[in-house]
Amino acid sequence: MMLLQDIASTDTLQNIQGAGFELLDKLSPKFFLRLTIDLIATTILVRLIYYRTYHKTEQFFTFFTFNLTIFLITNLLNNVEMSMGAAFGLFAVFSMLRYRTESISTRDMTYLFLVIAIGLLSAVSKGGWDELSVLNGILLITTSVLESKWFVKKEHSKSIIYERIELIHVNRRQELLEDLQNRTGLNVQRVEIESIDFLRDATRMIIYYFD
């Protein structure tokens, strides 16, 4: 009985390995080349552009899994004569997804669109690897330029509680900006008053500053 189990286990393992090699044989070198270009482009976008600008890693898993999922599904459907319209329909479905437990900022959602677009483009593009590399390169260069200081100064914001309520008067706005700059050390350019608490002589405001 033990011998039969060992033989059965060996046959099962050989069948699994055979099926695995058969699957790999069905995947053309073109598939792996496109997958490599897709992953390289996504890595550049997420690691060298997104992370360098925002220093956030919590969305890495989302970006890479969405990109890989879109690429694999689109590549599979593309092998069954999927039209370009259906491909962009799939793009629209995935890009409209929202997380219920945690909100995603507009900027993170934009990067999510980009990784989906790269996966879709890498899977359905009819050109060669050189054309695909150029198309992905255009996306990456454009994103990098828009995120750089060459195109426009990057304005940041913070919400603070401010107690010198007398300075929020419109005629004392310059004094308010100077006081905020001295206290925070930031190049504060403008403020937005959110709420005023006259009982506590404090106000909640958003300060906007450049790097």
From TrEMBL:
<keyword id="KW-0812">Transmembrane</keyword>
<feature type="transmembrane region" description="Helical">
    <location>
        <begin position="111"/>
        <end position="129"/>
    </location>
</feature>
<keyword id="KW-1133">Transmembrane helix</keyword>
<feature type="transmembrane region" description="Helical">
    <location>
        <begin position="60"/>
        <end position="77"/>
    </location>
</feature>
<feature type="transmembrane region" description="Helical">
    <location>
        <begin position="31"/>
        <end position="48"/>
    </location>
</feature>
<dbReference type="Pfam" id="PF16316">
    <property type="entry name" value="DUF4956"/>
</dbReference>
<keyword id="KW-0472">Membrane</keyword>
<dbReference type="InterPro" id="IPR032531">
    <property type="entry name" value="DUF4956"/>
</dbReference>
<feature type="transmembrane region" description="Helical">
    <location>
        <begin position="83"/>
        <end position="99"/>
    </location>
</feature>
<protein>
    <submittedName>
        <fullName>DUF4956 domain-containing protein</fullName>
    </submittedName>
</protein>
